[in-house]
Specification:
Radius of gyration: 19 Å
Helix content: over 70%
Structural class: mainly alpha
Number of helices: 11
Shape: elongated
Distance between the termini: 56 Å
Order of helices and strands: HHHHHHHHHHH
Length: 182
């Protein structure tokens, strides 16, 4: 029923059904996570955060709401708040690619480039060990931009070229690399 509501863009009805599910099993964070995602898609940022935080409280070891909330904060230009969410996650979750990747993004947004590079390299090493599919063009673009900001142009070029191997038509990377070369 929830899926049908979502497909019909009947989001209030989907949320109502999800709230009923959450009431039946308060320790299940998944309905809360989905409610947060639906609210975020609708641009209801405060409601999305409220549901993500409820999901985190319902199951502190469930990682998805931490990353969803961190992404919400990053997309809203609130890198410091994103980093606070990620620090909270770091205290409750095992080390992971996503935790280090998002922390790398947040520290980069705060212009803490040396720290950002450390987290991005850690994320890269974890992905190489377990799931290299996570090393996307976006990942290499972000790493390259941090390296460029640190003045490490040869390493930045290598990262941008890896990005272009994944997506040869990526205009943002082509532009960034061209300006760096110039």
């Amino acid at each position: 029923l929830i899926d049908l509501y979502i497909r019909q863009n009947a989001i209030p009805e989907a949320i109502q059904e999800l709230e009923a599910l959450a009431a039946l099993d308060p320790e299940n964070p998944r309905p809360l996570l989905l409610m947060g995602s639906l609210e975020a898609e609708q641009g209801h940022i405060e409601e999305a955060e409220r549901f993500f935080r409820k999901a985190m409280a319902a199951s502190p070891a469930f990682d998805a709401p931490y990353y969803e909330l961190a992404a919400l904060k990053l997309n809203g230009g609130e890198a410091k708040e994103a980093l606070e969410v990620l620090d909270e996650a770091r205290n409750k979750l095992p080390k992971s690619f996503l935790l280090d990747f998002y922390t790398g993004l947040a520290t980069s947004a705060l212009r803490q480039y040396s720290q950002s590079l450390q987290f991005l390299r850690s994320a890269e090493a974890q992905a190489e060990e377990g799931d290299s599919g996570r090393l996307t063009g976006f990942f290499y673009f972000r790493k390259g931009s941090v390296l460029e900001r640190l003045g490490r142009f040869e390493e930045a070029e290598e990262s941008f070229l890896k990005c272009l191997e994944k997506d040869p038509e990526d205009a943002t990377t082509l532009n960034y690399l061209g300006y760096m070369w110039a």
